[in-house]
Fold:
Amino acid sequence: SSNRMNLQNIGIVLSPTMNVGHSVLFIFLNYVDDLFPDTKLTKYSGPLTMSVGMGDDEEDLPSSPNALASALAKQEAILTQLHEELNMNTDNAQPDRQDEMLWEVQRKVTLLKRKLRHAKRHALQSNQEEEQQKKQEHTTETRDEEDGAISLLEASEAELLLEQEELTSIGDELRKRLDQEKKEIERLNEEIAALVALKEKDPELEQSSDSDSSESEVEDEADLERLLQELIEQNEELEQKNTQLCRNIHEE
Structure:
């Protein structure tokens, strides 16, 4: 998409220059991803002396630490090369252009070193600020989670207290009802005992009574028997209620 020549024509052009056969060069060009899977092409940027004028200021320098380090390495290489050329020069007369370029490269090296220090310091401060911000966010999230958990526990505690109060009131009511039922059972037991004692005294009363009151006494005895039977049934029913209440209280 970026070249108007196909791979075969490119191979024909580059084959004499690279001293490689057409077929081998075609394989290299056609299967470059398979033959060189870990190779990464990066755009070459020339030294600052070649691309930046002598009158340019520090704003034209790179900003990232990696770019500054790369530019500094290139400038130092050029500076070393210029020193070697000056040392190899036998006569005392030095070209003005070479001397001027030497000072310019030295100035750019100084600028790059200073800006690289500032960039590293700024990057370190930025990393520290980011870490501090992350810690604050994490602390805030942790605090919010703890507050939510505390609120949930408080709500659960309030619900449990309400349930405890309800159960306490129900237990008190059941105890009162149980006491009332016990008193009623005691009263009925007393009435039953009185009736039984009265029944035991009836034969003596029948022997000493007149013949006119015999029929009324028989009717009274039948009424007493019926009343006694009813009281016994009520007593049994109250006993069952008492047992049921005791079970309910135990279950609560």
